């Protein structure tokens, strides 16, 4: 999906990242309706809950939808201004924001070992920015949107866990309501940022191959939304963020090989620092949770977890 969105957003004729994201949300809502219909027609083959729009549930999911819009919009804007290879480093601060939000919201302190891991991640981030600058391909706009995307990813993981009871723990229902809310919220944003005129004057507006690529992006978004929600439901926001970082590192290698790019040793070092720091942070948190699990309930209550994180050594 990252490579596909990079192709769509890199189109200089169509400078409308919000519209591209909006359309993918519309496709996701349509797929939810289609899956619901198929479940009724083939109950033994397709398993999908019956979903009827409820305004009260929609309002309960709304805080997540606002964060969700920020996450996918900033992701796409970051991708628009930077290449797929640097996209990994540009969005590497999700774990750091988890620690920051836990301190600001919960007044929870973090162990020195965990802070050192965050320092390694931040070091990898700044080294990557430095190397992109030396290569002459740095976009500060891309870096800015990457940081905002990282913050939004952390908040999205937290709010997904918090609103899950409102949809009876159903990933599909959450996907349905979240994307309906997003479609509605995107409309005024598209108008405010003047994308209606750009879309209307786009030369490939009647090109079926363009809409095919746009629709395929929506299908990937539907699949990713389901897998992401499932991962957060059964593990924790931390697990989601770290596995996302690992995925991004693999994606970086593919991007460099595909584009036949030549990167410096320090550039690769920055990526390894991000991956190594994130992996080390997971190990440290796992050890801390194991120690907490062996204490009494009163001692365990003193150490608050990030909202949605399970007291589970298998993070």
From TrEMBL:
<keyword id="KW-0812">Transmembrane</keyword>
<feature type="transmembrane region" description="Helical">
    <location>
        <begin position="208"/>
        <end position="228"/>
    </location>
</feature>
<feature type="transmembrane region" description="Helical">
    <location>
        <begin position="138"/>
        <end position="159"/>
    </location>
</feature>
<feature type="transmembrane region" description="Helical">
    <location>
        <begin position="20"/>
        <end position="39"/>
    </location>
</feature>
<dbReference type="InterPro" id="IPR004853">
    <property type="entry name" value="Sugar_P_trans_dom"/>
</dbReference>
<keyword id="KW-1133">Transmembrane helix</keyword>
<dbReference type="InterPro" id="IPR050186">
    <property type="entry name" value="TPT_transporter"/>
</dbReference>
<keyword id="KW-0472">Membrane</keyword>
<feature type="transmembrane region" description="Helical">
    <location>
        <begin position="60"/>
        <end position="87"/>
    </location>
</feature>
<protein>
    <recommendedName>
        <fullName>Sugar phosphate transporter domain-containing protein</fullName>
    </recommendedName>
</protein>
<comment type="function">
    <text>Putative transporter.</text>
</comment>
<feature type="transmembrane region" description="Helical">
    <location>
        <begin position="99"/>
        <end position="126"/>
    </location>
</feature>
<feature type="region of interest" description="Disordered">
    <location>
        <begin position="291"/>
        <end position="315"/>
    </location>
</feature>
<dbReference type="Pfam" id="PF03151">
    <property type="entry name" value="TPT"/>
</dbReference>
<dbReference type="InterPro" id="IPR037185">
    <property type="entry name" value="EmrE-like"/>
</dbReference>
<comment type="similarity">
    <text>Belongs to the TPT transporter family. SLC35E subfamily.</text>
</comment>
<feature type="domain" description="Sugar phosphate transporter">
    <location>
        <begin position="5"/>
        <end position="257"/>
    </location>
</feature>
<feature type="transmembrane region" description="Helical">
    <location>
        <begin position="179"/>
        <end position="196"/>
    </location>
</feature>
